Amino acid sequence: MNNLYEWLDSIRIVLSLAFLSYASWHDYKSREVSNKVWAFYAPLGLTLTLLHIFLTNNFSLLITLGISFSVFAGITIPLFYLGFFGGADVKVFLCLSLAMPFAPFSSFPFLGFVSPLYGMSIFGNSVIISALTAVAMLLYNLFWYARTGTKLFEGLDHEPTIKKIIALFTGYKISVSEFKNKIHLAPMEELTKEENGETLRTLRLFIRTDIDREAIIAQIKDLLGDQQKIWVTPYLPFIVFITIGFILTLIVGDIIFGILMMTL
Do residues 227 and 245 both lie within one domain? Predict the structure, then answer.
């Protein structure tokens, strides 16, 4: 019987990896994932989870399943409506909450710990991996400044230092002509024309995913022209980070908890 449980665990893991890998590729290429992916993944994952629960006769795991789905619905749906999550990001976590609500019984991660709600460990690891892009962004900006000697915040001298520091970790400068041809970038600047005819530039640190990009490009081009450089931020393919986070959870465990345990 133990072999049967291990097989079910393996099928749940392989199924999740297959759907996550497919979705990651499309998220990376186009930042869009077909709803058909989730329409297949969710019922298949839920069926395997329910089969595992009934075969192990551990019906308390039904409570874990319900809590898992409720928690992720409560976290991701508000983030979507606030503009911080794309629709596919919400759906992948809801699917994971059904397919992997608890840790595989045959999994023995290096750190030895994962959350009772397995998806929370995946979520935390995904956030850590995505945060590494902030370090890469900072290094890129420092290298760009050292190479060009150009002011990083030209036209934005009036902005608070804290906003400039955050910008260094979340964006970079690019010419307007380059920006308008790269659909995976969003502007970090808001431009307004003042009564004296001058253009006021301000940094935007929180970028919604549903902005009218074409209208913004037209406004920037009208006020700055094609050759000026503006701050932009990339739409990150978060499903790629979720997939990496899932693999790390299987192999390493909950990284955030591991760091806390090593520092306490």
Answer: no
Distance of CA 258 to the CA centre of its chain: 21
Q: Give domain status of residue 87, yes or no.
A: yes
Per-residue CA distances from 129 to 82, 91, 120, 134, 152 (Å): 22, 19, 14, 10, 26
Query: Is the distance from CB of 101 to CB of 118 less than 8 angstroms?
Result: yes
Q: Is residue 27 part of a domain?
A: no
In this predicted model, what pLDDT tens digit does every residue of 123-135 receive, in sequence order?
999 999 998 999 9
- For 262, the token pair is 């090593």
Residues 61-105: tens digit of each pLDDT = 899 999 999 999 999 999 888 777 888 899 999 999 999 999 888
Does residue 245 share a domain with residue 185? no
Length of the chain, please?
264
